[in-house]
Specification:
This protein has 148 residues and is mainly beta. It is 11% helix and 41% strand. The longest helix is centred in the N-terminal third of the chain and has 17 residues, at 3-19. The termini are far apart.
Length: 148
Amino acid sequence: MAYEEESETIHSLLDIMHEHDLDRIKVKVGDAVYELVRREAGATIVTAAPAAGPAPAAPADGANVPAPPNVKRVTAPLTGVFYRSSSPDAEPFVNIGDRIDAGSVLCILEAMKLFNEIQSDYAGVIMRIIPENGELVSQGDELFWIAP
């Protein structure tokens, strides 16, 4: 895609975000995926990558949100698709406010058709779940905040 076309696409997506007061938009255009996330000073592009390949590392939604003191951050150990439950019909493994033990399953990350259960290293209360169900996360992205 030529630079002018890409710039026009981004501006069109920004207009849609502003018109509908969206905090996030993810769109596939041809073989490129655009993910725009509203930040404090407007919207910024998080991802613009070929759809067939893995997306470049993107800051997690909570990257600019300060965590309370002593909150433990659970990060993605690998790049994959984030799922809150074992199947679309199943209840999520955890919800905000749930008390968990170390070793509790928090989510599943699907990578290369393998489903990897992500367990907590910490006991505590789920304070925040950062990615949306079905969202692609990169290794190192924040997934959960857990308070003791």
